[in-house]
Design goal:
By secondary structure, this protein is of the alpha/beta class. Helices cover about 45% and strands about 15% of the residues. Bound molecules: ligand LLZGTKA7. Ligand LLZGTKA7 binds next to β12 and α11.
């Protein structure tokens, strides 16, 4: 899967991923009306609204981008019905040949991690059938419970050619509270980055590892250090757009080959039509506004990489 991600990034020339983090507030009224007319103002109606919203965004952007990153929390909000919208979104993205990064941030004791890994990335035996659960291509995981919580994910990735993005330095304002604490004179996130590179060395693609890292766009200096510490690690970079990250902040997250990072934007793309810059599209054409926001993001990052050369 890491080879597919790299080759799709090269083909689209777009090291970006569209975050599918829908809330009902983002879904324009005409879509909500349609969904509620069919299913009522119920969890089913809400889930239908999220799905219709996602579908239009995927249709408007899939030929510009290599990947999508649905955030599972947004679907869990609506219970089982929301999870069905999550699965429908994954299947639709797959039908458009997009790489799917499930932002699930799992990690637990070994036996529980194994269950998560099988459910999201692997296959489960049911009688004589071997079936896939969610079947994302990559999943985000939280490594802060240690190696025995991560190893089951790596095992399933090796069996299925799937990949991981492991939280190393997160984009949120209080990420430093624990992650920046010094241990043996170095911040905890550096120790975790080193461990990610070590895990990754056991499962390599052609040029990058199947075990990637999450490093927030909001900490560019730390991103620069981590890039050097994990040269073969693909970095998923959240924090662009709505959290303040810009192309110019991100040049050191990439390697000399122009690869090595993929930048996520969720609200900045899916809710673009609500922003002054894209208001001219109107709520009816929200997906066109998202397409334009993708084009602008690609050109921001491309421009920053070119001027850094
Ligand atoms: O450090 C992290 C890890 C994950 N995220 C996730 O990325 C998106 C960001 O959404 P925006 O709307 O582009 O801010 C969201 O799903 C987060 O859960 C992160 O932001 N930071």
């Amino acid at each position: 899967m890491i080879n597919k991600l790299v080759s799709k990034i090269q083909k689209t020339n777009a090291p970006i991923v569209v975050g599918l983090d829908p809330t009902l507030d983002f879904v324009p009224e005409h879509i909500q009306k349609k969904a509620f007319a069919e299913f009522g103002e119920t969890l089913e109606g809400a889930a239908e609204a999220l799905w219709l919203f996602n579908k239009e965004i995927i249709d408007a952007t899939y030929n510009l981008i290599p990947a999508v990153k649905p955030q599972i929390a947004m679907y869990e909000t609506f219970g089982v019905e929301g999870m069905q919208a999550y699965k429908r979104t994954l299947d639709y993205a797959r039908s458009k040949d997009l790489v799917i990064i499930g932002d699930i941030k799992r990690g637990d004791i070994g036996s529980t991690s194994e269950a998560y890994a099988i459910g999201h990335l692997g296959k489960v035996k049911v009688g004589s059938n071997v079936l896939s659960g969610f079947n994302e291509d990559f999943a985000t995981i939280n490594p802060y419970m240690g190696s025995d919580s991560v190893n089951p994910f790596i095992k399933v990735c090796k069996e299925e050619n799937k990949g991981l993005f492991v939280l190393v330095k997160t984009s949120n304002p209080s990420s430093g509270e624990f992650q920046d604490r010094l241990i043996d004179g170095r911040p905890l996130y550096e120790h975790v980055g080193e461990k990610v590179a070590e895990w990754g060395a056991t499962h390599m693609g052609d040029s990058y590892s199947y075990v990637g890292a999450v490093v927030g766009a909001t900490y560019p200096e730390m991103g620069k250090t981590l890039r050097k510490l994990m040269p073969k690690t693909f970095i998923l970079v959240p924090g662009y757009g709505a959290q303040g990250g810009k192309g110019a902040d991100l040049v050191h997250y990439f390697n000399e080959d122009g690869l090595g990072a993929i930048v996520n934007s969720s609200r900045g793309i899916i809710a673009a039509y609500k922003m002054e810059q894209y208001a001219k599209f109107g709520a009816e054409n929200f997906a066109e506004a998202s397409r334009q926001a993708v084009i602008d993001m690609i050109s921001d990052i491309d421009g920053a990489l070119k001027s850094a050369k």
